[in-house]
Specification:
about 40% helix; four-stranded antiparallel sheet; about 15% strand; 11 strands; alpha/beta; 3 domains; seven-stranded parallel sheet; Rossmann fold; 12 helices
């Protein structure tokens, strides 16, 4: 048992020797970079923590590779931050003649035509279908180096928008961080891992609300079988709330899948927390009567104040954060993300603009 009464060493960056802190500041001076300097300083000093004696060679190798991979991936994605993206997941073992391949290719083609870039794992099967359907201009690939299936598919190979990764965790970070919508087609352990991680991030509020569509070919029972397992072995035992089923949509229909993803941004645009208040940005704010109904229907996730119409709050104005959108606000309990998704669906049902709004760019997200 650890004796918590024993003082632990201070491992914060600023606990480093003064001369090391000065060297870090001098290095940043040479870069000429001033934007986000506070964070850059913390990264430099945080990396120096590995110089302490308790870091093994394996620890250092993992940290080095992860940092290098993230830095390269951020560089590749940076020019496209203003373009909405959808990540497509699915089996690498699906043949080009398979109905699932055709479905993934057609989905990617539709979304690319709507202005969305398509991000895949850059491998064969469903990943190749996504890159093919998107076309080279609208495709991004995040490939994983494996003893097998190591080569990126021909639709993304040698493209400047291809990133090569050693670790699955850094790869999944990029596949999930950069996208505002997700399509998951049938696959093996890797696909299921990605699917459950997406759901975990949304269920726990660690990721921003986003549409997750579980798509199968007509007549395919893959996702109905998956849902039966979740219902019988997870929901039935109280291991998750049934309302969390609102976080995803299962369909075998191409039109339904496309509309589910694009329709998520029909009225809803984004959200931001300012203290305990959650501000939701919308194309069109609800009427007074609609606010009364929403406050009543979603009283279980709000404070007694309910839901109210809002102007941009001071921190939003200070950062010029989507000031042109209408706003509502509530004191969200932060624990019932499935109910939050149902609130977003209700808001989308209230307003039907001629075309969906585009999701916020990742660069403009909540600080």
């Amino acid at each position: 048992m650890t004796d918590r009464s024993v003082a632990q060493p201070d491992r914060s960056p600023d606990a480093l020797p003064v001369d090391v802190l000065a060297l870090a500041d001098a290095f940043l001076d040479t870069t000429g970079v001033h934007r986000n300097r506070d964070l850059l300083r913390e990264i430099v000093l945080g990396t120096l923590q590995f110089a302490r004696k308790d870091a093994s060679r394996l620890d250092l190798k993992i940290a080095r590779s992860a940092i290098e991979e993230m830095a390269e991936a951020f560089r590749v994605f940076a020019p496209y931050r203003a373009v909405p993206k959808v990540s497509i997941f699915g089996s690498a073992r699906i043949a080009r003649s398979d109905d699932l391949y055709v479905l993934a290719r057609d989905l990617a083609r539709r979304l690319a035509s709507a202005g969305w870039m398509v991000v895949t794992g850059a491998g064969p099967g469903i990943m190749a279908a996504g890159n093919e359907g998107a076309g080279r201009e609208m495709a991004i690939g995040v490939n994983i180096r494996l003893p097998f299936e190591t080569e990126p598919n021909v639709w993304i190979a040698d493209d400047e928008k291809l990133v090569e990764m050693k670790y699955f965790f850094t790869r999944k970070l990029m596949l999930m961080k950069e996208s505002a919508g997700f399509l998951v087609l049938p696959g093996g352990f890797g696909t299921l891992d990605e699917c459950f991680e997406l759901l975990t991030l949304l269920q726990t509020g660690k990721a921003e609300p986003a549409p997750i569509v579980l798509v199968g070919a007509p007549g395919d029972t893959y996702w109905t079988g998956w849902e039966r397992f979740v219902s019988d072995c997870v929901y039935a035992r109280g291991l998750a709330d049934t309302v969390d089923g609102a976080l995803y949509r299962i369909t075998n229909d191409l039109d339904v899948a496309t509309n589910e993803l694009l329709g998520f941004y029909r009225n809803y645009h984004s959200r931001r927390f300012v203290g305990d208040t959650m501000v939701i940005r919308l194309q069109q704010a609800p009427s007074d009567d609609e606010l009364v109904t929403l406050s009543r229907d979603f009283a279980d996730i709000c404070s007694p104040r309910g839901i109210w119409r809002s102007q941009p709050l001071p921190p939003e104005r200070a950062s010029k954060d989507h000031l042109n959108f209408a706003r509502i606000a509530l004191e969200f309990n932060r624990s019932q993300q499935g109910r939050l998704r149902q609130l977003i669906d209700a808001l989308n049902a209230l307003a039907l603009p001629a075309s969906p709004s585009l999701p916020p760019t990742k660069e403009e997200g909540e600080p």
